[in-house]
């Protein structure tokens, strides 16, 4: 009579095992088959504005230095709604600074200041609705990093050139305290003050000179950050002159 | 199992037969009981057979019930899957149609975007050209304005020199006056050179 419990046990085991391999019914149907929409192309980073110009182009401005007997042009970029950044030598000996954007809009300058620490100047403008402003990178670019420079070479059209960082060097012009960066990007007079962008579009430096072998020198963003943090290093520039020779040039 | 059906030993049977039950008249000691002759020795085997039959029937009934339950369950599950399959096919067909429409629209829109992108590039390029021309015109205007102001200074200076010469008459031989005249002449010549340089650069 021990057979009965054994059979019952075997039957139960078979039942449990069998239930495990039995197919189950379908799960409930979803109410919506449409997945969540991805970001629209216009919302993606780096997208161009409706007028076809990139954020980097929109933040880059052309400066005209109406100087004491000369007219020079250079480049700068919008840091915030009232601040532009350019080179000190772009605004040197000026009696008036005129600023225009990529689409020809004129910005009215209110004050200019510069520093002897680096070839950097700050131009204050009347607050206006600006379509784009620069984002400063947290760190200087490393050797071999790809960079892009946007500016107005020879006072001409807004132009973009690319290159790589060749390394840090002492400033051959002695216009900066500390080291500057050498890049392979080719610049021209008039490119001075151009923003140097990394692959993310953040500013990693400011162009201030070209070398004899068509390389460019840039003030690294770390120096720029120091100057923006230490406003005491910036000295206001007086926009006056009393000479009267006239010539035209680009910085 | 076999122990339960074993016959007791002969001496025990004999003992049981010799002890009369109370209130009962004892029969002959050697007469066997009427029932004991039909139960042995075939009874245990028959009982075992009966138990096996009951067990087999029980197992069969259980198996039949289990099979029936299983079949019903499978039929139910199958029905559900079939229903859902039909629903999914219907949904898939509808979505396929929508997808075809959407693809056609996307294709059409891509073509439009391509055209608009080309137009935008052209417009942007034209805008840059115009802005550049305007900037250069501004540069030239400012430069020429400064040059005109300088020429005005030049004229004023010549006027002063001329006035001095006329008012001083024959006394205009002072070396300092001649030096002033030479400076004004140099200044005006530099303006002329600057203008020539400007016009040469524009050609």
What are the SSEs and their pairings?
The complex is a heterodimer of chains A (251) and B (203).
Chain A: H1 3-21, H2 55-59, E1 60-67, E2 70-80, E3 83-86, E4 94-100, E5 106-107, E6 109-114, E7 121-125, E8 146-151, E9 159-170, E10 179-183, E11 195-197, E12 203-210, E13 216-220, H3 221-229, E14 235-236, E15 247-250
Chain B: H1 10-18, H2 36-39, H3 43-168, H4 175-202
Model description:
The complex is a heterodimer of chains A (251) and B (203). With 251 residues, chain A is mainly beta. Chain A has 3 helices and 15 strands. In chain A, strands 1, 2, 3, 4, 5, 6, 7, 14 and 15 form a 9-stranded mixed sheet that branches. In chain A, strand 9 and strand 10 form a beta hairpin. By secondary structure, chain B is mainly alpha-helical. Helix content of chain B is 82%, strand content 0%. The radius of gyration of chain B is 67 Å and the shape is rod-shaped. At the A-B interface, helix 1 and strand 1 of A face helix 3 and helix 4 of B.
């Amino acid at each position: 009579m021990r057979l009965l419990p054994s059979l019952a046990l075997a039957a139960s085991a078979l039942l449990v095992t069998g239930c495990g391999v039995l197919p189950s019914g379908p799960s409930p149907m979803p109410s919506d088959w449409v997945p969540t929409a991805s970001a629209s192309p216009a919302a993606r980073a780096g997208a161009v504005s409706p007028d076809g110009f990139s954020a980097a182009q929109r933040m880059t401005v052309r400066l005209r230095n109406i100087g004491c007997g000369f007219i020079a042009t250079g480049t700068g970029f919008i840091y915030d709604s009232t601040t532009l950044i350019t080179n000190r030598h772009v605004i040197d000996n000026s009696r008036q600074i005129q600023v225009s954007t990529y689409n020809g809009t004129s910005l009215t300058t209110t004050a200019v200041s510069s520093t002897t620490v680096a070839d950097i100047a700050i131009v204050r403008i009347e607050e206006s609705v600006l379509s784009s402003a620069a984002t400063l990178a947290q760190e200087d670019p490393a050797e071999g990093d790809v960079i892009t420079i946007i500016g107005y070479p020879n006072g001409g059209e807004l132009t973009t050139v690319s290159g790589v960082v060749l390394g840090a060097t002492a400033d051959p012009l002695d216009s900066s305290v500390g080291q500057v960066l050498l890049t392979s990007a080719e610049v021209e007079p008039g490119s001075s003050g151009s923003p140097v962008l990394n692959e993310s579009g953040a500013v990693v430096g400011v162009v201030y000179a070209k070398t004899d072998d068509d390389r460019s020198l840039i003030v690294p963003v770390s120096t720029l950050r120091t100057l923006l943090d230490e406003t005491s290093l910036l000295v206001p520039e007086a926009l006056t002159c009393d000479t009267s020779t006239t010539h035209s040039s680009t910085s | 199992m076999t122990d339960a059906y074993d016959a007791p030993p002969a001496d025990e049977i004999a003992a049981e037969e010799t002890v009369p039950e109370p209130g009962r008249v004892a029969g002959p000691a050697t007469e066997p009981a009427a029932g004991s002759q039909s139960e042995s020795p075939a009874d245990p085997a028959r009982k075992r057979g009966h138990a096996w039959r009951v067990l087999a029937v029980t197992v069969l009934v259980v198996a039949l019930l289990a099979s029936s339950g299983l079949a019903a369950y499978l039929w139910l599950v199958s029905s559900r899957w079939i229903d859902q399959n039909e629903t999914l096919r219907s949904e898939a067909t509808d979505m396929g149609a929508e997808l075809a429409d959407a693809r056609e629209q996307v294709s059409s829109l891509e073509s439009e975007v391509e055209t608009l992108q080309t137009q935008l590039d052209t417009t942007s390029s034209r805008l840059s050209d115009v802005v550049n021309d305007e900037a250069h015109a501004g540069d030239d205007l400012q430069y020429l304005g400064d040059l005109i102001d300088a020429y005005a200074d030049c004229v004023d200076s010549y006027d002063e020199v001329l006035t001095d010469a006329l008012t001083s008459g024959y006394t205009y031989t002072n070396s300092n006056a001649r030096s002033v005249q030479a400076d004004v002449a140099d200044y005006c010549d530099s303006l002329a050179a600057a203008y020539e340089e400007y016009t040469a650069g524009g050609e």
